[in-house]
Amino acid sequence: MRLAEGIRKHGFRKWYERQLLQSHAQLVLAFLSAIGVFAAIEAASRFKDLGEQLFDAGAVVLCTVIGIIAIRRYLFLLSHAEAVANQADCPACKTYGRLDAVDECNDGQRVHVRCRRCGHAWHIDA
Question: 99 — phi, psi (to 5°)?
Answer without folding.
Answer: -145, 160
